[in-house]
Amino acid sequence: MVKAIQIGLGHWGFSWSRDVIPKVPTIDMVGYVDTNPEATQRVQQELGIDPKLCFSSLEDAAHRTDAVLAICTLRTEAHYPVVKRCLELGYHVIVEKPFTTTIAQGKELVALAKAQGKLLMVSQNYRHQPAPIAVADLIAEGKFGALNMVSIDFRRHGPSQDYRYWDMPDPLLADMSIHHFDLMRFVLGDEPVRLSCRTWNPPGSPFRYDPSGVAIIEFSKGTIVSYRASWMNSGPVTPWAGEWVMDGAEGQIAWSSRDHFRGKAGPDVLTLSQLDGKPEPVKLGAIAFPDRTGTLAAIAGTIESGVTPRGFSSGEDNLGSLALVQAAILSASRGGDWVKIAEVMG
């Protein structure tokens, strides 16, 4: 068992407390931390958490518990200072994405984790789904030969789907697209070289910043990714991981993942099409710990065994996904000019 504290019990943090942590049996919760007394009262009243396990500060929790893992589920701007302090206090850390707002902050935290001999993991939960895991295996095996082009579409209509963060900077690229960018790297087993991106805010949109965008991303092995995404699209809703078509020399791989809409969940879908052949569905098996439970189970297992599983999204690995976000934002600010990933990585 891995003894843990959770820091951040707000809207999304409460979801972790209720929907994620209890489903990972290797986690033993010994503390819950939030500066807002209403947040700690909520977990006590609605989840039956012992008030003795609730703390108003990280320092207090650190002195009064024997936790080895910090689960950081705060707002993005709080990630850097809180994760830094957790590492200084000697915790292993799992933190929600994006784990920092700048590459420099990310590099600092990665270096600190190494110096402390502690794990730093980013909860890239979309990796822990049946379809992307199966597709990553297919690509690694060379299914349908060399990839030529990958097309990804993400469509949601925020105003009619209970979206709530209208004033968030870069609501598409920083908050949503980071999932898709991270999946690109995971599934392709490759790193991006450069990209071009344009974003815009449609007339009548309640968003303060651009909720729609398109990008062309070039990877080191020559694969070109065409990416289209929007929080203001009135077309058919896509699964959260988007709709993917991966074109190879000898056929296509089409898939979608995290098909959740209005409280209803559908299965991941994967089809294979030989060149000039009909699409053939692939049966996907269930995985023991999907989505966010997968990231939490992964770091708990690594702490206990010392063995890092495939697809483990360490802070160091996740710098590549954060760089894609930063490069896309920079390219959009330059009107779609090509931006090399090396420029933002420094």
From TrEMBL:
GFO/IDH/MocA-like oxidoreductase domain location: 135-241
Pfam family, one: GFO_IDH_MocA_C3
Entry keyword Oxidoreductase: yes
SUPFAM superfamilies: Glyceraldehyde-3-phosphate dehydrogenase-like, C-terminal domain, NAD(P)-binding Rossmann-fold domains
Gene3D superfamilies in alphabetical order: Dihydrodipicolinate Reductase, domain 2, NAD(P)-binding Rossmann-like Domain
Residues of the Gfo/Idh/MocA-like oxidoreductase N-terminal domain: 7-123
Name of the featured protein: Oxidoreductase
Family the UniProt entry places it in: Belongs to the Gfo/Idh/MocA family.
Entry keywords, A to Z: Oxidoreductase
